[in-house]
Amino acid sequence: MTNDPFALFDSWYDEARLSEINDSNAMALATADAQGRSSVRMVLLKGHGPAGFVFYTNYEGRKAADLFANPYAALLFHWKSLRRQVRIEGPVETVSPEEGDAYFATRSRDSQLGAWASDQSRPLESRETFERRYEEVRARFEGRAVPRPPHWSGFRVIPERIEFWRDREHRLHERHLFVREGDGWVESLLYP
Description:
Oligomer: single chain
Strand content: 35-45%
Distance between the termini: 17 Å
């Protein structure tokens, strides 16, 4: 183990990218709305480091509404092939417009167009309605770069707590908890 939770995360994440068949960057994102009603869904990690853990989404969808009303979240990485998980909790902030633009430019053109066509999390009359909207957006941007929609960008979860869990025989698991204290981290063990 190390006393640097980000170095440990990097090590485990590198191993997961080699062992997980699909989406080693998949993480469960738990949010709560203004009334405290919780919701969880899978999102993809698109950046991480001491500043936090970043994912991107439509700012008009449910997860964004939750985060704007209650800017605190929990993340969970579960790497079944490694029998490990990492839990992260902390406040949330939006990424800068420059960060949003830079990431959006790396997405496939179809994904860029989909960000314009989708009213994420809202009722959809039929799949054909969405496909028609997609074709309209594709025609609109034909022959030119697709800019990032104003309603689409990223969030950064700034960790206050990071827990590393490792499966052990007979449910005698190993749990290391890092809690932010000032500019540093305090590490402790937790009972399984």
